Structures are given as C-alpha cells and as structure tokens.
Amino acid sequence: MAVYTSVSDEALAAFLAEYELGEAVAFKGIAEGVENSNYYLETTKGRYILTLFEKRTDPADLPYFIGLKQHLAARGFSCPLPVAAKDGEALRRLAGRHAVIITFLQGLSPRRPNAAQCRELGRGLAQLHLAAADFEMTRENSLGPASWPILWQGREANADALEPGLADKIESDLATIRGAATLSDTLPRGTIHADLFPDNAFFLGDRFTGAIDFYFACTDALAYDLAICVNAWAFEPDGAFNFSKAKNLIAGYEQIRPLQDDEKAAFPTLCLGAAIRFFLTRLVDWTDTPADALVKPKDPLDYAARLRFHRTAESIRDYGGE
C-alpha cells in the first residue's frame, strides 16, 4: 500500500476540525501511486482524497500545484479541487507532513487501456494544455534532462545487474539526449502534467472524466507530455509496442491541438527522453528502497523494454503519427 505516513484516528479528528467537512465515516489508504501518502476519506459531508506529501515533493512547489488545479478547474478542465479550511487556506500540516484535502473525482482508472480510451486520453491531454495556456505560475522540471546524469551517476553496476550490458545502452541513450539538449527549449512550451499514467486518469466507460496527481506538473515542452503518455499508454505488460494505441493517442491529441512540424520531427527523441526519465527514477527507487519497505518499487526493466523500441524509431510515423 502506498502509504508512508500513518494517521491516527485522533490526529485525523483534530485535522478535520479545521474544516467544515463534518466527521470522518471512512478512511483508508490508497494503493495507487508511490510518491505520496494518499487516503480515501469519506465524511458526513461527502467524499474526498487526503494527500500527505513525501519524498520528491518540494514544499516550496506546493502553492504551484494547488494554484494549477484551481486554475484548471476554473477553465472547465476536470481535476480534483483543493478544499480550503475554515481559515481559507488549502495547504495544512498533518502527522508532520504538508497535507491537502481534494475533492473526489468520478470515474475509474483503466487497468488495461483500450484504443478508444487512448484517443480520449490524447484529447484530454490537449485540453489540459489549452486550459493551462494562461496559467501564470511556472515551475522548472526538476526531473528534466539536466537531472538525468545525476540520477545515473554511480548506478551502472545496478543496471548491469538487472540486464547484462544495459549500462552501455543507457550511456548511449544519455549521449543522444545530450546531443539534443536544447530540444525542449526550442519547442512550444507550457504547463504539462508530466505523469499522466493510466492510474492518474479517470474514465466512465471509454469517456475521459478527468486527471489527478499533478505533483510532477511543470513548465516544459508540450510534446514531451505527449511522449510521456505514449510511453505510459501504448506499451503492453510484456513490453510490446501497441501501434494502434499510440496512433489513437496522437490522433486524439491532434484533434484538439495539432502538432507543429518541429514537434513531429523531435518526437522520437522526446519519447526516448521520457523513457530515460522513468527508467532512471525507477532504477533509483529499485536500488535505494529497503527490502522491508511498505511500497514495492516498480521494475526499471519495463522502461528498458520501451527504450529498445525508441532506439529504432526514425520518425513520428513509427508511433502512428503523420
């Protein structure tokens, strides 16, 4: 279960007393996600999610995350809205952690997304980008290309222990990225989600109903966000690339926001970079998480398989784009 910080009944009751949400009638940890402690909270007034911020979340970034969700909701994009306490502030402290209560979003996260859901997700991602176009706050991507050599440093042996010869391939991938180091600075930029995996997207049937977990959101290349989604949605559990899912995802995005020629030309490199980012953070978690930890880290080899595909891609056509 993805809960790092436990909350006692007494602490929860005292925390809720700061709100106009009534008393708790249900409270349980949520297994999805590995970055923060998340709880399902039901009170006499409604259903909510309580998040306690852990690990990679910098407290200085929290006003940005809260402001972004408020902005998106005001623009009609469906996302959880932070709930203000009696004093008008949404950000609080609980169990020694920064904490926030957000509204409950209707829908289910797809366990095995289909092509129709991928098309809807693409549309939803583009709608998010347009809704955030006039969001004035900015945040550097703390897990962007500049961070990747730092994450990789000293982990060559860990990579080769997972798959012999993998370290040399990662070194080559990082060299490719260094050769395009200014790529994301020259492409259209704006606010991106940066972590829109299936467990952060909600659907009712095949209809996209909204996105959650904006705690990696930042200012970066818009097409990089689409590349992250291709990695997250268009590969099967065995590592095989699903051309139909990728094609639908890209087509759905372009129905709302057509890609520019320079974004299309850069797309294979953006997909490679997105896979490197998640491989490296998974490798760090895989090697640094204690064996008796409550949360089992995700397997970096899932992204090693994606990297093998991206190394062979020559254009956006290899991903189903045009």
Notes on the protein architecture:
The protein is α+β, with helices and mostly antiparallel strands. It has two domains: 9-103, Phosphorylase Kinase, domain 1 (2-Layer Sandwich), CATH 3.30.200; 115-319, Aminoglycoside 3'-phosphotransferase, Chain: A, domain 2 (Alpha-Beta Complex), CATH 3.90.1200. It has helices at residues 9-16, 62-74, 115-131, 148-152, 156-162, 166-179, 183-186, 222-233, 243-256, 261-288, 301-310, and strands at residues 24-29, 37-43, 46-52, 92-94, 97-103, 189-192, 201-204, 207-211, 218-221. Strands 1-2-3-5-4 form a five-stranded antiparallel beta sheet, with helices on one face. A two-stranded antiparallel sheet has the order 6-9.
Distance between the termini: 41 Å
CATH topology assignment of the largest domain = Aminoglycoside 3'-phosphotransferase, Chain: A, domain 2
- The coarse silhouette is globular
Overall structural class, as computed from helix and strand content, comes to: alpha+beta
Main sheet record: 5 strands, antiparallel
Fraction of residues in H or I helices: 40-55%
The level 1 CATH classification of the largest domain is Alpha Beta
Rg of Cα set: 20 Å
Mean pLDDT: 93
SSE arrangement, N to C: HEEEHEEHHHHHEEEEHHHH
Strand order of the largest sheet: 1-2-3-5-4
In percent, how much strand structure appears in the residues? 5-15%
**What is the count of β-strands?**
9
- From the 3D coordinates, which CATH architecture of the largest domain would you assign? Alpha-Beta Complex
> What's the number of structural domains?
2
CATH superfamily caption of the largest domain: Aminoglycoside phosphotransferase (APH), C-terminal lobe
Number of helices: 11
- Note poorly predicted spans: none
